[in-house]
């Protein structure tokens, strides 16, 4: 079970990770996060970086070691990771790698109420999704090819996982769409009937199916 963290925002984990080797102020932290591509791996809200850094300091995971000023610019506070911060970084990473946690995304939310759309519309929309997925897969593969031999696999492992997830989603989506197009999806007639006739009394079997009553037998 996931622990309750003093600073639970995943941006905090990324900050701790990029600060292992040197002390930095917030602008350097932001630059390093972008340089390492953390904005591709984590949904970073850049406006919250200041608050996250402050919260890490309050929790004892970062400490102030100085400040600097350039010209008329505001003073920049410099932070470094503490021993407690290093322990938190390691412990949090171990938890994320070892303990699966369901990710309820937008696609899953749409799938959960798929029946509100006619199957023909779903097939068309899945086709559009596939086109985007195939484009993303091709882009990631091209990036891998470009980086081949320049970086150890260890530093590309999250991109490798992302590509595998994209490919799996594309394969599953392609198979579902094929069932709809070919007419092999179970209870397709009831699904179509509900959209054709509407949820009337004479359409109880279709209504039960679409509304998720748990059975497609007549009520």
UniProtKB/TrEMBL annotation:
Transcription regulator PadR N-terminal domain location: 15-89
Gene3D superfamilies: Winged helix-like DNA-binding domain superfamily/Winged helix DNA-binding domain (1.10.10.10)
UniProt-listed InterPro entries: Metal_resp_DNA-bind_regulator, Tscrpt_reg_PadR_N, WH-like_DNA-bd_sf, WH_DNA-bd_sf
Alphabetical list of PANTHER family matching this protein: PADR-FAMILY TRANSCRIPTIONAL REGULATOR (PTHR33169), TRANSCRIPTIONAL REGULATOR RV3488 (PTHR33169:SF14)
UniProt protein name: PadR family transcriptional regulator
Organism: Nocardia fusca
